[in-house]
Structures are given as structure tokens and as C-alpha cells.
Amino acid sequence: MTDICPVCDTPNQEEGNLGMVVGKEWICPITGMKFVWIPSGEFLMGSPGGEEERSGNEGPQHQVKLDGFWMGKFSVTQGEYEQVMGKNPSKFKGVRNPVENVSWDDAQEFIEKLNVDERGDGGYQMPTEAQWEYACRAGSKGRWCFGDDEKLLKEYAWYAGNSGGKTHPVGEKKPNEIGLHDMHGNVWEWVSDWYDENFYANSPKDNPQGPSSGSARVNRGGSWGIGPAGVRSAVRAGDDPDICNAFLGFRLSRTCP
Questions:
Q1: If pLDDT is split at 50, 70 and 90, which confidence band does 16 have?
Q2: Short-list 83, 134, 122, CA closest to 257
């Protein structure tokens, strides 16, 4: 398992409150996007059978082991997207608001262009579904990254209860234990996996990549337009890869710079 920070090539020893290593930040030289190092580890993916307002596609809970990776500190913003693509398709305009109204295919085009612009040999990608949930939970086994107290949700997320029916600039809410913002709410985030509501029953333990084929792609995290139950850490949904609307955005992961 990779447990070495790719920037400094040495283990990062600083422990977080929930036992996860707090990673170094790395900044994209083209867009200024910030990335946080997520160390290797193991976690229970999905929700337990007794979790309140749980959906059937969130189980069965299963053990997952992941290599270390870099995760975007924020959702991709409109300013970052426009810098690479030369356009901004979002409904709720704002340079620091998450880009939305982008399909999975649009996000892939952004990634491909960014990879070429930076160094031509790849590096940026979408996180897998397992990477996304591992990074979101940051060691938490509760309904949200901070536990089970719904009263705290407004401190971490823009959702139907406080969003005013729109997106908000990234990073205005509290981060989780490893420094990632807006993992709950604001916009749903596309991930790389094909969607299969029954995949968890057959998922491999080590670095799962999702089903080998499908018709829909997974998105995670909930949005500004959904209630508390819909922005839980385990919530998963699937949409056609060409669907775009004001609820859907994305976040990047990457390999060693």
C-alpha cells in the first residue's frame, strides 16, 4: 500500500483527530487548484443496515483498502473550468462557485485538456467512488463526516435547509478532518465509476474501480437542493454521462505530481 507523500517522498507523521494522517497540499501550476494528500488506509464503505433514511444501494457495508492519492480540496470552480475550457456553462454564476451544468463527459474533456496543458502525460482524473467516500468520511463512521448530529450539518454543508436555492462559493463551510470542503452538499460530484446499485455485494477489497461497464455514472455528496439525508457520506446516485444540470459538478483527484 502506498503510504508515502509523493511530494516529499517521506511519510507524513502528523496525526489527525480521527487517526488519519493530515496530508500536504499541492497546487496545480495552471489553475491554482489545491490538492490534499490522502494516505493509504482501510475503511468500511457504505452505510450500516440501521442507518436512518438509508437507501438499499448503500450496502452491504464492505471493507475497502486504498493506496494513497491526492484529492481536490474543493469542487472544481467556475473560474478554474473557464480557465481551461474557455467557457462557463453554470447557472449560478460566480468565479469561486462550483462549476455545474456539466456532464460526466464534459468533466472528462476538462481533465483531458488539463492533463495536456500541464505536462501531456496524465495525472488528473476523477476519484473512484471508493476514494471519494474514504476522503469524505475522513475516519468518521457516522452519517456525515462529523458524526450523527444533524444540527451540525449547517456548519459543513450547503443543502436545502440553508442554501437559498443556489450554489455558494467553495470553502465557506467547515472542512472535514483532512481538510476537504463541501464534501456534503453544494453540488453532486461525478466520480469515475459506472453505476450499479448492487455492485457493493461483489466489490473487490483492494482499490475497487467499480463495474467494468454500465449505462450511468456515479455521483456523490448531494447538492444545494436536497435535504440532510441526501447529503450523507454513504449516499450514491447514478446518471447518464451526458446529463447536465445545476445540481451536478465534479472534483478532481490526481496521481503523483
A1: very low
A2: 122
Residue pair 217/193 in contact (Cβ under 8 Å)? The answer is yes
Task: Give the pLDDT confidence score for residue 13 in this predicted structure.
Answer: 36
Cell of 163: 442554501
Residue 94's pLDDT band (cuts 50, 70, 90): very high
Question: Taking the model in full, what pTM does it have?
Answer: 0.92
Eight-state DSSP code of residue 237: E
**What is the per-residue pLDDT across 105-118, written as a single tens digit (0 to 9) for each?**
999 999 999 999 87
The residue-averaged pLDDT of 5-10 equals 46
Residue with cell 452505510: 47
Backbone phi and psi for residue 146, each to the nearest 5 degrees, phi listed first:
-100, 0
What rounded mean pLDDT belongs to the chain? 91
Coil, strand or helix: which one is 185?
Answer: strand
Yes or no: say if 198 and 41 are a contact pair by the CB < 8 Å rule. no
Chain centroid to CA 76: 10
Q: Which three cell numbers stand for residue 111?
A: 481533465
CA distance 80 to 209: 27
How many whole angstroms separate alpha carbon 113 and alpha carbon 109?
6
Q: What is the 3-state secondary structure (H, E, C) of 96-118?
A: CCECCCCCHHHHHHHHHHHHHHH
